[in-house]
Structures are given as C-alpha cells and as structure tokens.
Amino acid sequence: MYVVNRDDLNDTDRDIKSETWRSRRMVLGKERVGFSLHDTVIYAGTTSTFHYQNHVEAVYCVQGKGTLTDQETGETYELSDGTMYLLDGHEKHTVVAEEELRMACVFNPPVTGRETHDENGVYPLIVEED
CA-to-CA distance for 78 and 5, rounded, in angstroms? Predict the structure, then answer.
C-alpha cells in the first residue's frame, strides 16, 4: 500500500511548477501501477497549451472555471467542477483559467517526473528501468 498527502509533496521533486500551472505528482511510473496521477492547479487568468503526443490523459476538474479548446477542431468546452475530458486522440489543446482550476490528471503511460514540456507542449516518452 502506498499513501501520500498532496501537501507533503510541496517543494519536492514531485512538485513541478511553471508560470501558468503547478502539478504535484502523487503517483509516478516508479510506483509501477500503469498510470500516473497528478494534482494540477492552473492559475487564474492564465492560458496554457499542451500536446501529449506520447501519452493519453484524463483530466477531472474538481474546482474552478475556465475553457478548453481543441486546437485541431477549434471546438471549445466549458470547464467547471465536475467536468472531465479525455485526450484519447493526443489532441493539442489550450486551457484558459478564468478562475483557478484544480484538476486530477491521470496519464498512461505513466510519467516519471523527469519530463519537461518542449516548445510544442509535448512530454517525451520516458519509461522507468526494470
């Protein structure tokens, strides 16, 4: 069994910060369960573009208000507490946070914690060694 409190991850190597968001990685590839789980906050008044070409991501909004735009189709969706979106087609997308957004994010394959977004918002595929 593995138990962790989000706040215990503050300012550790599992607490990844950028100008527009913060992601505390509660479960990583090293836990060897087939997915990673992140508590992510997107700061109010910011715009973030992501493109996970190597991962499928499910995102469940548990707080806040904003919009999600599929950069491939131009479709826009409202984000609020209770909204979930699944990036099962590796869609490039933009999130605009009207209010601070808190998201529970699940990645498959799991991230390791060593990934950084490249200039296109893409994470490289890094896998844990056996």
Answer: 29
3-state secondary structure of 13: coil
Sequence-separated (6 or more) residues with CB below 8 Å from residue 87: 52, 56, 57, 58, 59, 93
Q: Which two tokens stand for residue 122?
A: 């893409």
- What global pTM score does this model have? 0.89
Residue with tokens 């505390």: 24
The CATH fold assigned to 16-108 is: Jelly Rolls (2.60.120)
Give rounded-to-5 percent helix, strand, coil for the chain. 5, 45, 50
pLDDT tens per residue, range 7-23: 999 999 999 999 999 99
Q: Which two tokens stand for residue 33?
A: 């369960």
What is the DSSP secondary structure assignment for residue 84, as one 8-state letter? E
Burial class of 2 by CB neighbour count within 10 A (0 to 12, 13 to 18, 19+): exposed
